[in-house]
Amino acid sequence: MRALSPAQSGGRTQHRARGNGTCRLRLRIPSFRLPHSRITPISNVGLQVSISNAFAELDGDWRVKFLFIRDHGSFDLKVENIYIKILLSLGSDTTGKPTISTSDCSAHISKVRVLFSGKLGWLYNLFHSVIERKLRRILEGKEAQSWHCPDASGAHLLPAFLTISLLISLPCVAVTAKIDDKTGIDYSLVAPPRATPKSLDADLKGEFYSLAHRSPVPFSPLPLAFPSDHERMVYFGASSYFFNTAGIAYHEAGALVFEITEAMIPKDVEFKLDTSVFSALIPQLEENYPNMPMKFRLSTPTAPFLTIGQGGISFQPIVDAQAYAILPNSSLAPLFLLSLTGNVSAVINVRSGRIVGSLDVGRIRLSLKDSAVGTFQVEFLQSIMNYLTSSVLLPHLNARLGEGFRLPLPDRIQLSNILVRFHQNFLLLGADVRFQPRG
């Protein structure tokens, strides 16, 4: 006897007997419950899925044609106290996607009840106990192993087993995600997942890249000494490699360019960004560009490189600040180019599934790289540049960082009870996980 899949039979499960007879069966599953299920990590193996006290209620229509016997009717089938134990081996393929296979499986069913209707239904019901024992042996036997003990592809999985379906879908998950219109992140596996008695550990690449052009990262990730803490349900370690590849990706995408204009200066501050402010320090401005509005364009000649320690995140970015005079026809006249350096520290947190942060900048150091208005002492510009950085540039940067960057979380997964700790070379995020159902 050969069983056809629902896709082959147009939504019906059919059985065709040998010879001149046929048996057609249409099956529906109006009720299926998994009141008790548990996933347990098994060291050096993978995961053990245990389902207990499950219940399935099925009904359908049947039609028999064999020699002189022709009959049809319906049936109701209840399967109670289903116990299933599956041992899953976890791995990864060459693309970094997780793989899963079944290494062991067992099943037990306490009770099967069936009731037939139809012209000969009374006859079948006389033998219901024999039929029920036969069905239970079939469901528990090797013939049914392909139904409740799926292989890695999930091709023979009974759709009602939703818990196992989630695990089987792991090989189909994406290993890259788009962060915004400029960058994406690669979080493919760099090694197979490792099971311990208390956890399941996975090493992810955690590499940002530019959507316009992806180039090799010029440095390697540093090893992480992950703490043995199990107070939260899930822990996520974001290494300095994670943040530094983000700096490279945004630098390559041309996103680390900022402009400071007159419109960005707070209205309650008596400061005008024009040549008259700088003319006392640079006499040629008054001669060539009297009382003209100005603007600064800030860019990074190289991607910023940060370090992470127990005290937090710190880095010393190098920023080029090009000053322009805005001519009456709205064209720009380059004035001078400054190089700005300083100590920057960052505060990181997680809010609503996003990594958010804020920056704090120490005293700025200046040097003159180029000038179209003659040489001058850059020390005289120190207070002005400190003001523009702390009062204009920093609030705009922190507003963007406050919007955050989305964590690559599955749909409808929410984090709570979040903790953030700094360790050598990485930031540790811990959280409890909650699944938010639809509607």
Give the topology, please.
Elements lengths: L1 E2 L9 E4 L5 E12 L2 E7 L3 E21 L2 E24 L5 E21 L2 H6 L1 H13 L4 H4 L13 H7 L7 E3 L4 E4 L7 E2 L4 E2 L5 E4 L23 E6 H13 L4 E4 L14 H5 L3 H6 L5 E6 L6 E4 L2 E4 L2 E9 L5 E10 L2 E8 L2 E8 L3 E7 L10 H22 L1 E2 L6 E11 L2 E10 L4
Antiparallel strand pairs: 1-2, 2-3, 3-5, 4-5, 5-6, 6-7, 8-9, 9-12, 10-11, 13-25, 14-15, 15-18, 16-17, 17-20, 18-19, 19-22, 20-21, 21-23, 24-25
Structural class: alpha+beta
Rg, nearest Å: 33 Å
Discrete helix count: 8
Helical content band: 10-25%
Arithmetic mean pLDDT: 80
Which word captures the global form?
elongated
Question: How many extended strands?
Answer: 25
Largest sheet at a glance? 7 strands, antiparallel
Distance between the termini: 43 Å
Instruction: Point out poorly predicted stretches.
Output: 1-19, 142-148, 150-168
Strand content: 35-45%
